[in-house]
Amino acid sequence: MSKTPAKPPVPESGAAARSAAAPAPGNRFTERFSPPRPPARAFPEPIEPIKTVHKADPKLANAWKTKAGRDLSEAELLAMPEAEYMNDKQLEFFRTRLQALKDDLLSNAGETTEHLREDTTIVPDPADRATIEEEHALELRTRDRERKLLKKISQSLVRIDSGDYGFCDETGEPIGLGRLLARPTATLSLEAQQRRELKQKMFGD
């Protein structure tokens, strides 16, 4: 029985041979245009950051123990422990500051009353008379703003007596000594005040 001779392998066409011998186009493109890889480096072990602890001046931190609230300075007030927030001496400090501000505003109001009693009709020059009247109008606008501030001061003094002073009306959280020093009549924390102003800007009063 005769065997059929095996057929010799048919050589691949030129395009097929080139595609089999050459690397994939994607690989060739990556090898040609990709940036060189940096040599591997051994990174040191991470170092824990050193935390610096701020230490308050012991003289300031303990001054409130030996001083009356009205005699404390702002620096001594800010150095007090957080646990002492709105204690009797802090309330006395702000009561004294609010009362002094109230007395100052009332004194200014008395001076305004005296100025307005001046008769501008005796000034012969109309230009001078108009200038005086303009000054009176400006002073009245200033006193009107101070009148509103007097009302807020009186409300703050009532809040001190009731134990609500220093705490936000909306959230009940502490307003903070820094904000109260800048605005003793504040009734909202900074965050609550910003939210209210944003609502007023978006929806009106």
Unreliable runs: 13-26, 42-54
CATH superfamily of one domain: DksA, coiled-coil domain
Overall strand count:
0
- Secondary structure tally, helices: 8
Main pleated-sheet profile = none
Gross CATH architecture of one domain: Up-down Bundle
Mean of the pLDDT scores? Answer: 75
Percent in helix: 40-55%
User: What is the terminal separation in angstroms?
Assistant: 111 Å
- Rg over CA atoms, rounded to whole Å, is 40 Å
CATH class of one domain equals Mainly Alpha
Structural class: mainly alpha
User: From N to C, what is the helix and strand string?
Assistant: HHHHHHHH
Main location: cytoplasm
InterPro entries: DksA_N, DksA_RNA_pol-bd, DnaK_N, Znf_DskA_TraR, Znf_DskA_TraR_CS
Function: Transcription factor that acts by binding directly to the RNA polymerase (RNAP). Required for negative regulation of rRNA expression and positive regulation of several amino acid biosynthesis promoters.
Pfam families: DksA_N, zf-dskA_traR
